[in-house]
Design brief:
The protein is built from 3 helices and no strands. The chain is mainly α and about 100 residues long. It is elongated, with a radius of gyration of 31 Å.
Length: about 100
């Protein structure tokens, strides 16, 4: 039958060592890829836009309630246009009121 000469234990240890070496190689490869990507992007802005941020921006812009009448919606469009022309900042020096 099977002899208890330690071959199973040796094979088991060998398998564990191979798995550890493979993990180390994979981690090293991942680090190199990250470094290469960061090296290529140096001096550039980081892209932090995610889908959630894009959705939030889309919701905040162009939100005109449907229950407003024609004059009110035209007024809101004009206000938005004026705000865009003046840089969109609401406070600080040089801020002019949108409506007199």
């Amino acid at each position: 039958m099977n002899s208890n000469d330690g071959n199973f234990l040796n094979r088991f240890r060998q398998k564990q060592l191979e798995e550890e070496e493979q993990k180390k190689r994979q981690e090293e490869l991942d680090r190199k890829k990250l470094f290469d990507a960061a090296f290529k992007r140096r001096g550039k802005r980081k892209q932090t836009t995610t889908k959630e941020e894009e959705n939030k921006k889309a919701k905040t812009q162009d939100e005109i309630p449907a229950d407003l009448d024609e004059k009110a919606s035209a007024y809101l469009k004009e206000m938005r246009k004026m705000k865009d022309m003046h840089g969109g900042k609401d406070s600080g020096s040089g801020v002019r009121p949108l409506v007199k």
